[in-house]
User: Fold this.
Amino acid sequence: CNFKRELIYIKGDADGDQKVTTADLATLKLYLAQIAELEEVSKKLCDLDGDKNVNTVDLAVLKLKLAGIE
Assistant:
């Protein structure tokens, strides 16, 4: 049996686990502090304001998303 894993891309999913949680917030904070790297696909998913940059604005948008305020 061959099983193909379907990849699901979700805006804000920094850690690639196919869901948006506080772990993504922590991952994004580490990236912005230049402590950790993000894969290219994660960078695209974390550009939540669509300006082609991952920065503190995206962090703020992710916080609002997690709080249910979008």
Observations:
- The longest helix spans residues 56-67.
- The radius of gyration is 13 Å.
- The chain has three helices and no strands.
